[in-house]
Amino acid sequence: MKIKKSIACVLSVIMLIGMLSGCGQDEEVKVNLEMTPTTGEVNEYGWKMPKETIKLDVFSALQSSPDDMKKYNEKMKDYLLEKFNVDINLYCYDTNPDERLNLMLSSNDYPDCITYLNATQVEKFIKMKKALPLDELVDKTTDLKKRYERYSPMIRSEDGKLYQLLTRCGKADMDLMIPCADTCPMLRLDWYKEIGSPDISTPEKYLDALKKMVANHPTTKSGKKTYGISFYDTKKSDITPSYISYVGGMFGLKQGWDIDESTNEVVHWLNSDKGMKLIKYLNKLNLEELFDPEGFLMSIEEWGEKGVDERYAGYIGPWFHPGYYISDNWMKLMGEDYPKEMRYVHYDVKDSEIEHSTYNPQDALGFRVILTDKCKNPADYMRWFDFEHSEIGVKLTGYGIPNEEASIWTYDEATKTGKFTDKAVKEITAEKSCFDFEPYMLLGGECQMVITGTLEKLSDGTNCWLNQSNKDKWKELKDENLKDSFYNNTAMSAVVMTPDNPLISKKQRCADIIMTGYSQAILAKTEEECMSIIDKTQKDAIKAGLNEVQKFYNDNYKANLEKWGK
Amino acid sequence: MKPRNKTLRHDNKSFFQRVLFEFNKERQLWIITIIMLIWVLIFAYIPMAGIIIAFKNYEPGYNMWNCDWVGFQYFKEFFTAPEFPQVMRNTLAISGLNILFGFPAPIILAVLLNEMGRKKFKKVVQTVSYIPHFISWVVVASILFTILGNEGILNNILLSLGVIDKPIIYLYEGKYFWTIITIANIWKSIGWSSILYLSAMSGIDEELYQAGAVDGLGRFGMLWHITLPSIAVTIVLLWILGIGGILNAGFEQQLLLGNDQTRTYYEVIDTYAYKYGIQQGRYGYGAAVGLMKGVISVALVFGVNHLSKKTLDISVM
């Protein structure tokens, strides 16, 4: 009995120690403004060489493959260490970023620098005083300071301090950016030409064209059914499902919100006539058997496989999906025999009652980057970020290592300028593009090593992306067709709902109800059934708090517009 | 002459000396078990202290001691949540079906295997039956998508036989979900669970069967009067533990097989705690839901065990 009591006491003490060990620190951390001293030497990029190796430990919060990141960053990492004496350890995880960040915070094990955060994630760190204030550090920079004159008023916290920088900022002002339509409706060009390339400017005409294309090609060579439209659902639980935000642009919805331009009133798509029109349209696609119902279940790879099997006449979503997952594979399979019109081409389709389609939100602020309270050398990070924002820094981190055989650009040390190689430009702009991305990415191209970075145009009219700076015929066509579909979404993207907000559970509840209801409504067997389901979904969502969530977004959106004067 | 009575010697020792004595006496056993005991201490007992966050307004990254007490707020929130009836319904339905069909299934398989005469064939069947236990749910989900998908094997068979004229998307229809998950659970666990019953059956005295044969019992008679009563203790013990786990309706299988269309049928306590607790960063709420489940499970185990002791004189503890 005594032994049992003793064991119980020991276990209690252990549990107590376990509790205490879960504690974190609450004190404010002072910002170290000291930079690693330099040797006086300057490298070919104008970078003053540090006496000791500057180590930068950066976690990328975007969900990506860590093996791919390591593979594509390796050479660039070694290059930067050799040329700049800077050792950048950039890593990521292939898990839900919110869960990963929560785990990092609860275990008090997070890195010096975190990039590719969204506004909500940043707020968490700022509230917990785990993000360093950056004003004094930014003041010591040149290129970064110039750029942030424009952006910092939009990202200062309530206490007036600057805790965050931006990753890939610049996508809102049409004068500052190279337009690139991210989302659009697409049609398979060869099948479209077969039916006489009819007008597809409205949803009904688009549907008719899809019907005719499928009637011409009802099955594949192996006898499998073809569909007019396919989509890949990201399956992310949200009050605006991914497919609503893609197709909503057809009816004037802005990422699922019906925003009145004159009053700036914000209404959720489920509460708006435009949303009802959208759901009816998607259901009609299903009733006409043009809609692949497995879109709700498939992974992107499974969707791509079906596409390669020639099962889809059209697609609405990110512009590069059919290219990357379908037509690139057709090119590889067919080689020289690949017909150039066997591809998906991008068009603007809009409801007749709206002035412009709204497929392409532009967010000036993009993702965010912070330096955490664990960072011992913030001044060194800031120095690197300053370089990343210089003209040559944008090119180096965007295009990868220059002057190698597989490089897409050359750097001239004498003039301190860089330009694309003729070979790269010729290949990327070819009508039947034969550009091989792999060797270029292995040199750190395609912005693999970007920590901050910008999408703003450089002085030579290029930006950090190869294929935006050099558009082939099809991309030119895409951006020309969709030039009216852009809108400034900065104020809405910057609306933040932190985990301690009592509305967060209501938002999740609404998201659950909406995700179930919208998919059931689309797959309903009659229009009446569809509207009955969506009606019930709306009632249930309102009961769960949709109108309160809507009011939150409405109030904060207007507050952002007022704060920024636009 | 000094007494050699160990008890007397024991009484003269201090507590510490007695502990050392016992440890020394059983040192081989301690050497074998000490590593596992330390592992259990570190990974099962020490983390238990974290249950305190079920009563605190804890956010990841904050000092646990500085967080405000919220008492039973999270428990109240769970019981009054609009999803509570549906979550409990789904949990009890899926667990109930698992107990109703999944519990007797390995017993029946064990009995059938026990009746098999040809040893080689019996071994093959047994091995094949417990291979699914080692297949992960991710692979099982892929197999089910292939079989039950819009263009899956089952639809192709039914279409070719003329039973249906349009494919049925089983994985989108909530009404099929419980059936699919129950069948998948049974297929995955039947072989492995039957091992326990087979080992219990192997301990039955052959003379009982011989005596039964003399008394004129046939195959079913021997099964009813000899085999089942002999393994009754094993059945009841596993039944008690099964009832205790009634609120464990699964997690991985729901996340893999479920989708937005079947959410109203697949959402169980564990997936709810994951979504509203872990994913939203409300660790305290998730902990409270988990704690509530654990407390009810323990109460059920004790309750059913007590009932079993009173009625059948069989108990786990």
Description:
The complex is a heterodimer of chains A (566) and B (317). Chain A is of the alpha/beta class. Chain A has helices spanning 2-21, 66-84, 97-106, 119-127, 135-139, 143-155, 189-194, 203-216, 242-247, 273-287, 300-308, 320-334, 378-388, 391-399, 422-429, 437-442, 466-469, 473-481, 490-493, 503-522, 527-544, 546-564, and strands at residues 38-42, 48-50, 54-60, 86-91, 113-117, 165-167, 183-188, 227-230, 257-259, 266-268, 312-318, 344-346, 360-362, 367-371, 409-412, 417-420, 486-488. With 317 residues, chain B is an all-alpha fold. Helix content of chain B is 69%, strand content 0%. Chain B is flat. The chains are: A alpha/beta (566), B mainly alpha (317). At the A-B interface, helix 1, helix 3 and helix 20 of A face helix 16 of B.
List keywords for this structure.
heterodimer; A: 566 residues; alpha/beta; five-stranded mixed β-sheet; four-stranded mixed β-sheet; 22 helices; 17 strands; globular; B: 317 residues; mainly alpha; 17 helices; 69% helix
Tell me the layout of helices and strands.
The complex is a heterodimer of chains A (566) and B (317).
Chain A: H1 2-21, E1 38-42, E2 48-50, E3 54-60, H2 66-84, E4 86-91, H3 97-106, E5 113-117, H4 119-127, H5 135-139, H6 143-155, E6 165-167, E7 183-188, H7 189-194, H8 203-216, E8 227-230, H9 242-247, E9 257-259, E10 266-268, H10 273-287, H11 300-308, E11 312-318, H12 320-334, E12 344-346, E13 360-362, E14 367-371, H13 378-388, H14 391-399, E15 409-412, E16 417-420, H15 422-429, H16 437-442, H17 466-469, H18 473-481, E17 486-488, H19 490-493, H20 503-522, H21 527-544, H22 546-564
Parallel strand pairs in A: 3-4, 3-5, 8-11, 13-17
Antiparallel strand pairs in A: 1-2, 5-14, 6-14, 7-11, 7-12, 9-10, 15-16
Helix pairs in contact in A: 10-21, 11-12, 20-21
Chain B: H1 6-11, H2 15-25, H3 27-45, H4 73-80, H5 84-102, H6 104-115, H7 119-130, H8 137-148, H9 153-161, H10 174-202, H11 206-214, H12 219-230, H13 232-244, H14 252-257, H15 263-266, H16 269-278, H17 283-311
